[in-house]
C-alpha cells in the first residue's frame, strides 16, 4: 500500500516552554493512511485528536518528525482538505446555497474564475445538496434549517471544492441519536461515491466502527497511538449492522482500550 498520509515519529509541543519541559500534546506518532481510506480517531478528552488534525492539514508543524501527504512533506496549510466541525458554523446572512459556495469564492483556483463560472458552480452546489437530501432548501437561511440539515449543508460546504481529504472533528456530536445515525448514512454514501480520504475525530465508538476502515485509539496526554484496529465488517454497512454481535464486540474492545 502506498501511503497517502504518512506520519514518521511526529511529536508536537505547542510552545518553547512546553518543549523544554518535555510536555508534548502528541508524542511519537507513526502511521500510514492509504489513498481513500476512512480513518477514525478516538480517545479521551484532551488526548490530542484535534492536534493530530492540525498536523495532518499543515495548520501546525511538528516539533519533531515529519508529516507527508500525497508524497509531499507538509510545510503549510493544505488546499486539498475540506473540514467540518461539531458546530455547523454556517453564515446566518447567507442562504444554504451561498454557504456551500463560500469556499469557491475564497480558495484558488476557483476564486479567480468564480464570477465567470458562477452558473456552473451553482449547479455543482445544487447537485451536492440534492445528494444529501437538501433539494428544495437551497434558498433557506441557516436558522430555517434543523440542526441535522445544517450539518448536511456543512458537509456539502466541506466537499464543494472536491477535496482529496475530508477532516471531521466531532461533526455529529451535537445531534440527537436518530439524526446522528441518519447523518452517518449520508457520510457513508458521500464517501462510497467519491472515495476521498476521511479523518473522523469522534467520541462515539459506534460511529467509528460503523463508518471507518481503521480506528486509531489515542492515549491521554501526551497523546500517543495506543492501538490500530481494522474494521473488517463487510460494506455496504446498514444501520442494522450496529445491532450485530460482531459490531458490538468491536465497540466493546475499543471501549476497554480507552479505559476510564
Ligand atoms: N494552542 C494550544 N496551546 C497550548 N496547548 C494546547 C493548545 N491546543 C491544545 N493544547 C493542549 O494539547 C493537548 C491536546 O489537545 P487537543 O485539543 O488536541 O485534544 P483533543 O483530544 O482534541 O480534545 P477534546 O477531545 O477535548 O476535543 C491538551 O492538553 C491541550 O490542552
Automatic annotation (TrEMBL):
SUPFAM superfamilies linked: P-loop containing nucleoside triphosphate hydrolases
Keyword Membrane included in the entry's annotation: yes
Lineage, opening ranks: Bacteria, Pseudomonadati, Pseudomonadota, Betaproteobacteria, Burkholderiales
InterPro entries on file: AAA+_ATPase, ABC_transporter-like_ATP-bd, ABC_transporter-like_CS, ABC_transporter_ATP-bind, P-loop_NTPase
Keyword vocabulary terms for this entry: ATP-binding, Cell membrane, Membrane, Nucleotide-binding, Transport
ATP-binding is among the record's keywords: yes
Domain (ABC transporter) ranges: 5-245
Family label: Belongs to the ABC transporter superfamily.
Protein name: NitT/TauT family transport system ATP-binding protein
MF GO annotations: ATP binding; ATP hydrolysis activity
CDD domains: ABC_NrtD_SsuB_transporters (cd03293)
